[in-house]
Amino acid sequence: MSDTPQFPTPESDPYQPPATQPLPAPQGQPYEATAPLAPKKKMSRGKKVGLWTGGILAAFIAIGATGNDNPAPTPVADTVATTTSSAPTTSSAPTVDPSVQASIDAAARKKADAEAKAAADAAAKKKAEEEAAAKAAAAEAAMTMSQKQAIAKAESYLEYTAFSRKGLIEQLQFEQFSKADATFAVDHITVNWNEQAAKKAKAYLDMSAFSRGGLIDQLEFEGFTTSQAKYGVKAAGL
């Protein structure tokens, strides 16, 4: 007989583990049998290498994506230039010499005074014109028909020839206006008698030759005053 112990082979091993017996349930509660845990399988070497490789690739991809999201850094020189250009510039007001400023102020006051005077003169002129127009309207309203006709006749005579004041009154009387109406008409029209004397003197010189003294006498005969006659003769060139 050999001294080596003999063990039965797995196929012929008659040993069988005893069946798991359920533990007795606590009092008042039924007992539920639990299934035995399955043994944990070991991971092969190839799978481990694959997982490590995939993790490293995922990390590189994440780092690359994060880097692309960050904006490019702004150069320091550009930042400084932008800050400098956007900073407000302050300039001090120029200093004006006191004498120059005094001259400027004086000129401004003089201009303001002139404008005020011009405005006052214009207002006074307008007021005078309005008063004169109102006075003329009132006078015309008070005129008689004969006076109005005498005025119209006097104005028509002055349109084609020159008259002295006296000569125009006499002409209206010749037209059978009363002396009062003729005088009223001549005094209510605007006439420059010096200009009338000058026009009359030129008209005489166009018709005939006169000496200076002779023309003055002729104008006085027409009813002009001596001063008016001399003015007319001088204006005519004598």
Describe, in plain words, how this protein is organized in 3D.
This protein is mostly helical and 238 residues long. It contains nine helices and no strands. The termini are far apart. Residues 111-140 form a coiled coil. InterPro entries: Ltp-like_HTH, WH-like_DNA-bd_sf. This is Putative host cell surface-exposed lipoprotein Ltp-like HTH region domain-containing protein.
Helix content: 55-70%
Q: How much of the sequence is in beta strands?
A: under 5%
Shape call: elongated
SSE arrangement, N to C = HHHHHHHHH
Kindly name the structural category.
Answer: mainly alpha
Q: Total strand count, please?
A: 0
Poorly predicted ranges (pLDDT <50, ≥5 residues)?
A: none
- Mean pLDDT metric: 79
What is the CATH third-level topology name of the domain at 192-238? Arc Repressor Mutant, subunit A
Please give the largest β-sheet. none
Helical stretch tally:
9
C-alpha Rg (nearest Å) = 67 Å
The CATH C-level class name of the domain at 192-238: Mainly Alpha
Our measurement of the CA-to-CA distance between the termini, rounded to an integer number of angstroms, reads 193 Å
CATH architecture of the domain at 192-238: Orthogonal Bundle
Which features would summarize this protein structure in a list?
mainly alpha, 63% helix, coiled coil, 238 residues, Ltp-like_HTH, single chain, Putative host cell surface-exposed lipoprotein Ltp-like HTH region domain-containing protein, Arc Repressor Mutant, subunit A, WH-like_DNA-bd_sf
